[in-house]
Input
Amino acid sequence: MEKKVEAIIWSIALPGFAQLLNRSYVKGILLILIEIVVNVQGNLNTLIVLSFQGYTEEAVQQADYLWIMFYPCLYFFAIWDAYKEAGGDGKPYMAIPFASAAFITTIGVAYSSQAIVGVVIGPIFLPILSSFVGLGIGFGARKIIKTLT
Output
């Protein structure tokens, strides 16, 4: 259990780190390189700083949505892969919560420039909130599927 949690935490820090810990060096380096490219092209670090400083509108204007739309899939794939490689592959249908989170978070990115109930949440915080919704839906779907099979 400890190794799986460690893998998830390192993947949250940076996609590819846990793969390096799991000795999947090529995969880890590739994920890190892809993350850096998407991060730089999407202006992600600038968006994080602006969002945390409360400059949501500026973050929306600085975002390159064509690049950051790709980030949730990369992020949750890296987390799932690290979890699986750390011994989490024994549980059936564990890919469902991660895939659901990637899908719902991508929708969060797509709508992050729009006002929701009169408030623009922005390209960082709406996807973060969406990821929890996606994980919840995914774990619920996994539970239902496990019950039916």
